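Hi support team,

I've been running sequence recovery on a batch of backbones for a student project. Most finish fine, but this one hangs at about 90% for roughly twenty minutes before it completes. I'm not sure whether the input is malformed or the queue is just slow. I've pasted the structure tokens below so you can try to reproduce it. Let me know if you need the job ID as well.

Thanks,
M.K.
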């Protein structure tokens, strides 16, 4: 059987700094006072998740280098936090150097703040472009009986990290993740077919949940293949994915 190798390209907003910002926001942490041991452990869990997917299914995930560099940086900071703090005069009057010596997290925090400003500005520009594109769009007529419909749920758009966490929970739930499973069943289905299958089900069913999409698959490899096809559809903005809250059901719908 020929093994299908998938290549997954994560865009610029899904690098290691984006993952760190996501974890800080999700856990409501103070960006100026990051609990480095906790954030390092959580970060490594996500990196291990990606490694496991790559190892089990022959995936070429184009993120390994920069994520591992950040992992090494976090471990170095974690170790430095255990050392006694040097006296402030060691920096020789350089306020930035003094701050970094006093707190090993200083440089990382500055990079995170700079990245956050860049990302916020880019998102603001994207929002303006969307508003401009919709300015002259025709408002659809109200459907009969629409006044009786319940208001839509306040769903937050899901990031790739939310999807990875939800996918990992499902893999653990069905008991197919981890070194205890030795049976290897390759999935030779091309990604295009998984993509077509997802779009066909959305066309027929209107909406899907991540659980409904993945559970019942014959192997871990097939689950990973379907999940990567979903990521590709999200990247191409052909589907939208929402979640009611941090660990709620992930809902998938066609992009409007």
């Amino acid at each position: 059987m020929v093994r299908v190798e998938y290549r997954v390209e994560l865009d610029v907003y899904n690098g290691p700094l984006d993952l760190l910002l996501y974890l800080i926001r999700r856990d409501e942490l103070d960006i100026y006072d990051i609990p480095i041991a906790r954030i390092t452990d959580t970060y490594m869990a996500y990196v291990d998740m990606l490694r496991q997917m790559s190892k089990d299914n022959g995936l070429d995930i184009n993120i390994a280098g920069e994520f591992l560099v950040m992992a090494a940086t976090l471990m170095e900071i974690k170790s430095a936090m255990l050392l006694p703090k040097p006296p402030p005069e060691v920096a020789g009057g350089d306020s930035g150097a003094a701050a970094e010596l006093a707190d090993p997290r200083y440089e990382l925090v500055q990079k995170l703040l700079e990245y956050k400003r860049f990302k916020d500005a880019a998102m603001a520009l994207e929002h303006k472009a969307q508003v401009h594109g919709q300015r002259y769009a025709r408002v659809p007529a109200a459907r009969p009986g629409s006044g009786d419909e319940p208001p839509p749920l306040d769903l937050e758009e899901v990031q790739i990290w939310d999807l990875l966490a939800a996918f990992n929970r499902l893999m653990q739930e069905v008991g197919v993740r981890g070194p205890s499973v030795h049976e290897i069943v390759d999935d030779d289905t091309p990604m295009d077919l998984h993509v077509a299958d997802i779009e066909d089900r959305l066309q027929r069913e209107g909406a899907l949940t991540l659980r409904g999409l993945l559970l019942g698959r014959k192997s871990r490899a097939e689950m990973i293949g379907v999940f990567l096809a979903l990521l590709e559809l999200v990247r191409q903005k052909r589907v939208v994915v929402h979640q009611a809250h941090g660990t709620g059901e992930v809902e998938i719908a066609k992009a409007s």
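--
Follow-up from support: It reproduced on our side and the slowdown came from queue contention, not your input. The two ends are 39 Å apart (CA to CA). No action needed from you.
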